[in-house]
Amino acid sequence: MSRDETPAHEHDARDAGTPAAPVNDRREIFGWMLYDWANSAFYTTVVGALLGPYLIALAQADVGRTGVVLDLGFLGSVTAQSFYQLFVAVAVGSQVLLLPVVGAIADYSNLKKRLMAAFCYTGVTATCLMFFVTGKLYLLGGALFVVANLCYGGAIVLYNSFLPEIVTEDRRDRVSSRGFALGYLGGGILLALNFLFVGAAPALLAPYGFTEGAARGLAVRVSLLSAGVWWGVFAFFSFRRLRSRAPSKQLPAGESYLTRGFAQLAGTFRELRRLPHTLKYLAAYLLYNDGIQTVIGSASVFIAAELFEGGLDNPGAPTFVLSIFLFVQFMGIGGALLFERIARLLGTKRAILVSLVIWSGIVVYAFWFFETRAQAWVMAGVIAVVLGGSQALSRSLFSRMIPAGREASFFGIYEVSERGTSWLGPLVFSIVVARTGSFRYALLSLIVFFVSGTLLLLFTDTARAIHDAGNRLPEEVPAETGTN
């Protein structure tokens, strides 16, 4: 729909004389990037490292290793070993349903910053409350995780949708990449501190009468609390610098934001049909990102199984895997910044394609050559370099394909394209493991996601997608644009 075809009640709020907020403002850009530093603490400490093993340990202490914690009737029973994954599935499913609607509502109001803050601090509260999860309260811990993860996703949609509003097309690769780099740094620092505390807790707390298990449990709970506090404190400074902007469209008389949000969501899907190259890019992202997330999610199991007798049950395996995890976290900083420079030289699409070729090489190398711990460190380093680059550039490239006024709606669908299919890669991985008994073949099977995503992106006319959305290529932006 062109500007002239827009219904009267959906004209830009700027028609009424609302002044536009500035773009390329250094203060606001830093505030935006600071939120990546803030929320990465939740993802690294809570999601990536500590909460799952802690809740599973509580459940097994209560009902035994394979004891039943939930009886779902005809759906079967949930055991101590599997209940955390059930809550993960509920969290992901809830995001698939909620995130597009959240984005649609944000595009129809000037509440984007307030909505983002509401999601952020609800998630922060749920994370901090995890400190009180002890003994038989593991199901409460799972419920708090669902709330925190859902709110994390809602805030991310709105956070990402600020990117095309605060910077012009020529600066998005740099800003997106630096945001990811700050996220890796912030999340890595807190995670390193928490690992040190958890490891030292038995010795530190023994003089106060704590057993080793009680000391580690308290250290984990304090670490979960620290992630919530870190997220909330640094987000406060981020929100102080982000500006609220006028809604792109006025709410029709007699409608609520909720009803208009669903209508806007339907309109966004109709708009995607008008933007076939954007739709093709989303499909490519869906495929290759599923491969990336599955490699990251299965890396610890793969490394432990191939290098340690008994896999993760080997006493030396968890420490080695956590060291690798921290290494990737900090190396990802350089990867995000390196690929921003590659994008500057080759173009964003070509830089992403380079990263996907490397991802394909990683799974082939792991299948044919991986044998030693030294090779694990090298492979982790390569993964770290391409991880930050592929994710940051994918976000910035997509931001150029969004029509003005639909930023949050489109980023809601972008997040769903990641979370809504996040079961495909793990499903393929688990089927191949079951059929072959080999983690190597399972990891190699993921190459289908990288190859198919690479080919689809290769034949996607991203320049046409950007122009169809009414935006400019980076080289088409006047050099004097902005406030800095």
What does it look like?
- With 484 residues, the protein is mainly α.
- It has two domains: 19-170 and 179-273, Growth Hormone, Chain: A (Up-down Bundle), CATH 1.20.1250; 275-474, Up-down Bundle (Growth Hormone, Chain: A), CATH 1.20.1250.20.
- It is built from 16 helices and two strands.
- It has helices at residues 26-63, 83-107, 112-129, 138-166, 172-205, 212-241, 257-274, 276-307, 317-346, 348-368, 373-399, 407-419, 424-436, 439-445, 447-458, 462-468, and strands at 68-71, 77-79.
- It has a two-stranded antiparallel ribbon with strand order 1-2.
- Strand 1 and strand 2 form a beta hairpin.
- The radius of gyration is 23 Å and the shape is globular.
- The two termini are 34 Å apart.
- The relative contact order is 0.15.
- Residues 1-19 have low confidence and may be disordered.
Trace the largest sheet across and list its strands: 1-2
The name CATH uses for the topology of the largest domain is: Growth Hormone, Chain: A
Tally of structural domains: 2
Work out the helix count: 16
The whole-number mean of residue pLDDT values reads 85
Q: Could you name the CATH class of the largest domain?
A: Mainly Alpha
| Level-2 CATH architecture of the largest domain | Up-down Bundle
Which spans have pLDDT < 50 for at least 5 consecutive residues?
1-19
Structural class: mainly alpha
Q: How helical, in percent, are the residues?
A: over 70%
Largest sheet composition: 2 strands, antiparallel
Order of helices and strands: HEEHHHHHHHHHHHHHHH
Strand content: under 5%
Radius of gyration, in angstroms, nearest whole number: 23 Å
Shape: globular
Instruction: Tell me the distance between the termini.
Output: 34 Å
Number of strands: 2
